[in-house]
User: What shape does this take?
Amino acid sequence: MRKRSELLFNLILVPMDALALLSSFVLAYIIRVEYSLKPTVYQIPGSEYLAALVFLLPVAIALFALAGLYSFESTRSRWREYSRVFIATSASTMFLIIVDFFSTKPIFPSKAVVIYGYVLACLAVILERFILNGLQRWLFRYKIGVRQVAVVGEGGVADDITYSIQRQPGYHLVATVASGKTALARLK
Assistant: This one.
């Protein structure tokens, strides 16, 4: 059974990732088209560019889901999550490049927009997830979203599990029980 806080954080991640991706590629467009002295290869109005991005955004979110970025883990390894962000952002950008290549009308006004957008998207999604992870860990301090755990068993393995649970944020050890029969009676 999933905790409501885990569901809430996963529900928040989807629109936040979408916003980070969209805003990164819009910022890339603005930087290249509005502030660069070099003319762009294609004259693409901002409204058409934005419409294309919004239309293709669900594919990017699907690629994020396939990369496992919306799994129900209350405590994710940051480096594993950030490497998945890099992979999913790379795949999403590659998808945009392929669509642009085969499209009869180009999506990007220049190649620099793709490069800027990719770099900004990686940074924005990692920063957004860093902030949300920090918020989730802060809530753990106040026992919000924490899982209650009991360790049943004895010996070295039970001690190792107990030690791991005590060091892992998002889990609260409520009991350690040496006898399996007694523990089952208490848990029911």
